[in-house]
Amino acid sequence: MHTLSSDAGPGAAPEHAIDMTFDSKGDKLLGLGLINGLLKIVTLGLYSFWGKTEVRRRIWSFTRLNGEPLEYTGTGKELFLGFLIVFFAVLLPVLIAGFAVVYLFPGNRTAITAYQAGTYLAFFMLVGNAIYRAQRFRLSRTRWRGIRGSLEGSPAAYGWSYFWTLALPFGLVAALSGLAAWAIGPQVGGLIIALGFIAALWIFPWRANKLQGLITNNMRFGDRPFSYSGRSGPLYKRYFFAWAGSALLYIGASAAAITYAYSRGLIELMQAGLPPPGKEILVFFALGLATLVGTGLVTAWYRANQMNHFADHTHFEGATFKLHASGRSLMWLLFSNWLLAALGLILGLTIGAALLRVFGLTPTGAGEELGPYETGLLPIFAIALPLVFTTTLATTFAQFRSARYFLSRLKLDGALNLNAILQSQSTGPKRGEGLAQVFDLDAF
């Protein structure tokens, strides 16, 4: 550990430079992915909470400050109990309410639409709350040299900011655009609405910076706070290229979809109230998926710039974080992780199809009658079990690659008086981040 002399004069506490490193040997997590996949199959998915905990322990232990590893102290039981509480307190009442609406108002589209709108609104309001609770739990279960992290503040307050910073500008745009469309006419009005929503997208850099400040300023390590000093202005230059590139992709994809639909006679088919053939639906699905992937790659430069900006303006005592992410490397990380996910999915489906054929659970020729197990659970398990195994393995390795990318590029510039940091008085939540698991918001 390198010690720097303090400028405070004789008798001042020594300050220490912080060397951040990450063990980049991914084979240490591949074996864990195999084990987690097998145990998830044996326990029918129940082990996922304990598997996630073990992945975190490994990734935390790979991260070292001055040669000493971080420690993750959370348990699978905490995650499982957190999920159960959210299931019975949130998900189950929503499902019961849905059945009640269908039963009490059969065929009433107004009632069903109102229920769906209310459900979407409620869940959207809970997303920010879930993000904050997940971060609070993970920080409270993170220790270095026995000192734990914490996140103060209110999840509800952060959740409200997460909601209104998106709902207010887009709601205002929707109201004004709708009023303009009503006054001018549906044809020109539709264009005004589209342009209004495109303009509202410029709120995102400001919103991201605001939310980052809210959560960072409430973070603690021991009894010492983090602080955030970033402004949104520097983000907009790169955002322009991300916004323009995404717009061109969506315009091109829309033009291609319309051209294809006309060339195949699908417009007349849909006007007659007939659904398009399954093959044509698959073409549109592939086009939409390619557009989403392309958008992710085009915006990689902006996201790398945003992450660097967040790190460069995050301070702890007299030190400042530095992240060296680049658009090209982040694009490759995203693309290769998508390929890993696709490979896991394809491999699982291939193995499942082979099992169906080996055990005679699927017909081998046209016109052949279905076997006795075709409509039972056995074919479902034959597909689902290898799919769980291969996707768990791919996901675990992708999580390691993402952690390695960011943590190996993250540095702490400056010196700290480590001996002055005392233990936090906050012990953190007693249960895991149930809401984040429901919304699938966990980074790992």
Q: Please, could you describe this protein's structure?
A:
The protein has helices spanning 27-42, 48-62, 76-104, 109-140, 155-184, 186-200, 204-216, 236-263, 266-271, 278-298, 300-312, 327-358, 378-409, 434-438; strands spanning 3-4, 15-17, 20-22, 63-65, 68-69, 71-72, 142-144, 147-151, 219-221, 224-228, 314-316, 319-323, 410-413, 415-416. With 444 residues, it is α+β, with helices and mostly antiparallel strands. The radius of gyration is 26 Å and the shape is globular.
What form results from the Cα inertia axes? Answer: globular
Name the quaternary structure. single chain
Q: Sheet bearing the most strands, described?
A: 8 strands, antiparallel
Could you say which structural class the secondary elements and strand pairing correspond to? alpha+beta
What is the residue-mean pLDDT, rounded to a whole number? 83
Question: Could you list some keywords that capture this structure?
Answer:
444 residues; three-stranded antiparallel beta sheet; globular; disordered N terminus; alpha+beta
Summarize this structure briefly:
With 444 residues, the protein is of the alpha+beta class. 65% of the residues lie in helices and 10% in strands. α1 (27-42) packs antiparallel against α2 (48-62), α8 (236-263) runs antiparallel to α10 and α11 (300-312) packs across α12.
Outline the secondary-structure elements.
Blueprint: E1 3-4, E2 15-17, E3 20-22, H1 27-42, H2 48-62, E4 63-65, E5 68-69, E6 71-72, H3 76-104, H4 109-140, E7 142-144, E8 147-151, H5 155-184, H6 186-200, H7 204-216, E9 219-221, E10 224-228, H8 236-263, H9 266-271, H10 278-298, H11 300-312, E11 314-316, E12 319-323, H12 327-358, H13 378-409, E13 410-413, E14 415-416, H14 434-438
Antiparallel strand pairs: 1-2, 2-14, 3-4, 4-5, 6-7, 7-8, 8-9, 9-10, 10-11, 11-12, 12-13
